[in-house]
């Protein structure tokens, strides 16, 4: 069994067989058709949601691909004779409550009560117990090679796009389908939608990629050309893939091909080819999807497209009443022709976070992203822990030990912090960057990490809970009782860059505040030589009151918790020795941030 992608031999690993201890729960391979009656609950689970209507459940339904491989799907559809549109979900995570992935991954269930879902939903997808009653068929696919689908499990790319095309066209011609198909879902299910829609299946009517990166290398796996600590979470997923054959070993491929090439190009969705209506979702709540979601919205060619940047964790939002009703309105409009006024929905709705226990401002309306009402503003590093609107004329240097292993708990040493205090209420909304002059005492390369933070009036660091403490299951008192996961705790937007990759910067006037790098080659630095670097910082929405401060933290390590508490402290480093930050005089180190007066003030 072998796999080639764009001429590259792909490293493979054995997938965990369904039913093995490593695979987690497995309900078995059982092609069949069953009626689930209104009020049905999964046997033995009185605590879950009941089906809101009678449903036909077709298990392990075989769908052929163009190369003869058969993929398996669970189809949930109304029992009526009326043809209905289908919503398709695509991932390797299993169906019918199979696998290790689910809302139980963190204490608190991300604020989603047990009785909110039926457990028949695909992880990160819509619940058939609810959505079939709304007049839709829910089609949950195990992608190629996953579980009982045939083939080799791919890690996003053209293969998913082609298979998704074939799946949509096959489902559309089934006798119960109206011929209209949409895609939906979060995270992997969102990523896959970019690739599928880019293939332009004729029966694809609309997409809802909710929080999905669209350039796997640059957006999430090797941000800034650095493979750590992001490889920890993706490596964990690589090791938990379930199937009856092999899986693409993307972490091994990153080790073999650390520079961007045609293998990684296959994992960049050609989003400019997408022309169907799209409802795109983003948030600030993870290190996985924010930049890719927003870039995907901006770059698709769809004439009818909407972006909502919400203030919470993605699954908390997915199963919220607001998110559910909003998505149904979108789908009803395009899949059923409902004249419900969806077209009047603001093109962009964004949120800003208070970094305290108060309610975030959300659904703030604008027309473009970056937000036109913001002004790119520079703050220069001037020493004594200060940022200033004017640069210092006196050259100075500060240093930090670059090669410590961070614990991700917001108390790591060897971090430089500089701040500026706002005199009036201010929003920071959009893309930022740090322009820093750096040198390494004894290394020919350096990895730089930066983070924007909000400080209280007394100078204390703040954080934002992505799920309110009182909404967790069970509720907790405050952040001290919340798991140290970036899904639940957000410190502020991060940025990173490997110095040797700076030579690959792409000249672009499209977004000066967001430097983009090809990462296709390197040019080592000389030990002791000062280099100027432009570090992109992820999009953010931060609210400051008068007397509160914006800070930048600078170090040689990642400064947020990882996705799973157990991964904190497990990362590695490729830095060596001390790094020096140079500022003042001819070496004007600064941050550039998008500021605005709060809307309505």
TrEMBL record:
Membrane-spanning parts: none
Pfam (any one): Peptidase_S15
Domain spans labelled Xaa-Pro dipeptidyl-peptidase C-terminal: 328-592
Any one GO MF annotation of this record: dipeptidyl-peptidase activity
Record keywords: Hydrolase
Name of protein: Alpha/beta-hydrolase
